[in-house]
TrEMBL record:
Residues 139-364 form the Maestro-like HEAT-repeats domain. This is Maestro heat like repeat family member 9. Pfam families: HEAT_Maestro. GO terms for cellular component: cytoplasm. It comes from the Eukaryota. It comes from Cebus imitator.
């Protein structure tokens, strides 16, 4: 008979059962050996529960004993084969009782662990992993045991003032995959287990709130409808995904997501496919609650680098898209933190991050923030001065420039590119200037800003400007430091000659840059050149634009006279 409370079976009873079945040692030697082994393991587990051993060492030791017991169960013959060993009805009944009590003893060991500490629910997750490695007939019986333990833990959680169960996320991930199992009994037990797990999670979530009765009322309601809820979870990934996101704390939901992500590399295609479906649905509904986004992105990158032809590659890239919806800054900063130049895997991840229009403005804002940095420049914490270094970890601006070559041409970014045209234009010109300083040392890393600048013009309806500049061999020497200032002037002049449609926004932004705080000297020169050339598209238009802005009237004198020294030419505009 299955037990729900560890107190219902005593060690004396177990010893009595052992004495009763001793005479059957010859007929069912392997079964008696298993019974003896489980009894020995259980004694150690119970002894350690009452000891003062370090909690980590205690858990590891008890886990080893549980694994040993599980391996013994997995080696048992089927109940039908056990019954064949009996020569009489009484023997068959005794053998069946021995068989069932072996399973009950395993259940009792698990219950005794959960009784002392919710943290040890982690062992259930390990058992589910072992089950996935061994598809023996005992799976359904083990699932009944796991469900019984979770039900007991939920009952205990409703009566506790604190619930420390950090493993609920990974345990939920394992159970969610079994809710669609081909064996209906296993699917049913997994679904029931999910209900009890959500009950525990709700108690953990609500403890500490001003109205503690909320948790109890929810738990009672959940327990009274557990059969109905369990049916919803069977073969219904959408219901599981929604309930997981609503019930688990953000840290546990993150564990759930990461566990499913690791399952995408399972050699079992069915498990990988199930994990991908649940993962996608969960992030569709609740990606805003996921923490540690950068680690998830990094895990995807590493998996795809190990296998560029991964069967679940599209699903992994889909995770990047879903995370970018709600955490664009975290995703982009992680994607910019890999070595330059980007490999094919990273470029594909950039494309996935840029596949939707909604997060595009936030993505470009993040890239512009990165482009404020100068490649190779690091802050010296001792002198509070900036120093130059070519350390590989300090080339994020170069990575951001290369990433723009991917993002800018995307159709989903057309509107956002138009919105941020002035900021992108100047940021890339600054980066071209910075790159010219690296040309002798990093020849393979100097053209990203130039390529991105050219992509920006072509994506903004300024193909005519690109054609004109190409005829003047503008792109061939743009990054050369000797000609850079003249090339900046040539770009500004060509833009002015085309009377480009982004003129008002660009002029406004240039003036904003000119009156902001201190910048690098090379930045100031580029701003002056651009502001001077762009300003004289139409003086009347310029005046009407600034005079309509009262706060700029007092500073309009800045444009009255701007002497420039560009190459060997002297320019004076007034």
């Amino acid at each position: 008979k299955s037990t729900r409370n560890p107190k219902t079976v005593t060690n004396l009873q177990i010893l009595q059962y052992g004495m009763k079945w001793h005479h059957m040692a010859h007929e069912a030697r392997s079964l008696v050996d298993i019974y003896s082994g489980l009894l020995s393991n259980q004694s150690v587990i119970l002894a350690m529960n009452s000891s003062f051993v370090d909690p980590l060492r205690q858990f590891e030791s008890q886990l080893k004993k549980i694994e040993s017991s599980f391996r013994m169960l997995a080696s048992m013959p089927s109940l039908d084969k056990v019954k064949q060993l009996g020569s009489s009805n009484e023997d068959i009944e005794d053998l069946e009782n021995l068989y069932q009590n072996i399973l009950n003893m395993f259940e009792y060991s698990l219950l005794s662990l959960v009784t002392t500490d919710f943290y040890k629910l982690q062992i259930l997750k390990e058992i589910l992993v072992w089950m996935s490695e061994d598809s023996s007939y005992l799976q359904d019986r083990i699932m009944i045991i796991i469900n019984t333990v979770l039900k007991f833990a939920a009952w205990k959680a409703r009566r506790c003032t604190s619930v420390d169960a950090p493993c609920l996320g990974v345990l939920a991930a394992e159970l969610s995959l079994l809710c669609s199992h081909d064996d209906s009994l296993i699917a049913q037990q997994a679904s029931l287990g999910m209900c009890h797990l959500f009950d525990i999670a709700k108690c953990q979530h609500d403890i500490g709130k001003s109205n503690p009765t909320d948790s109890k009322s929810h738990s009672v309601l959940l327990s009274s409808n557990v059969e109905v809820l369990a049916k919803k979870f069977q073969q219904n990934k959408r219901e599981i995904a929604q309930t997981v996101g609503q019930t688990l704390l953000p840290s546990l939901l993150t564990d759930f997501v990461r566990s499913l992500l690791m399952k995408l590399s399972s050699p079992d295609d069915k498990i990988a496919s199930e994990a991908a479906s649940i993962l996608t649905l969960t992030l569709t509904f609740h990606s805003h609650k996921v923490t540690m986004v950068s680690k998830i992105v990094d895990a995807i990158y590493k998996q795809l680098c190990e296998n560029s032809f991964h069967n679940m590659k599209c699903d992994m890239l889909g995770v990047i898209t879903l995370l970018t919806r709600t955490s664009p800054k975290k995703v982009i900063f992680q994607l910019m933190d890999y070595p330059v130049p980007a490999d094919d895997t990273l470029i594909q991840m950039w494309q996935a991050a840029g596949s939707e229009a909604t997060p595009a403005p936030h993505v470009l804002k993040t890239i512009l923030l990165i482009l404020k940095g100068k490649p190779g420049e690091m802050e010296d914490s001792l002198t509070e001065r900036k120093r130059f270094s070519l350390d590989a970890t300090n080339v994020m601006p170069l990575a951001a420039s290369q990433a723009l070559c991917t993002f800018l041409p995307l159709g989903s970014y057309k509107k956002a590119v138009a919105q941020f045209f002035p900021q992108l234009l100047m940021a890339l010109m600054f980066q071209v200037s910075y790159s010219s300083e690296l040309s002798l040392m990093l020849t393979d890393r100097t053209l990203y800003a130039q390529d991105a600048l050219r992509a920006l013009l072509n994506c903004s309806g300024l193909q005519e400007v690109d054609i004109t500049l190409t005829k003047k061999s503008f792109w061939n020497h743009l990054s050369e430091e000797l000609y850079h200032r003249y090339r900046v002037y040539l770009l500004a002049k060509t833009l002015s000659g085309c009377n480009f449609p982004q003129f008002p926004e660009t002029l406004h932004y240039l003036y904003k840059l000119s009156v902001e705080g201190p910048r690098r000297s090379e930045d100031n020169l580029i701003i002056v050149i651009f502001l001077t050339e762009v300003s004289f598209i139409d003086c009347e238009q310029l005046c009407s634009h600034f005079l309509s802005l009262p706060k700029f009237k007092s500073k309009f004198q800045f444009l009255i006279c701007l002497p420039l020294n560009i190459g060997s030419h002297q320019y004076l505009r007034s």
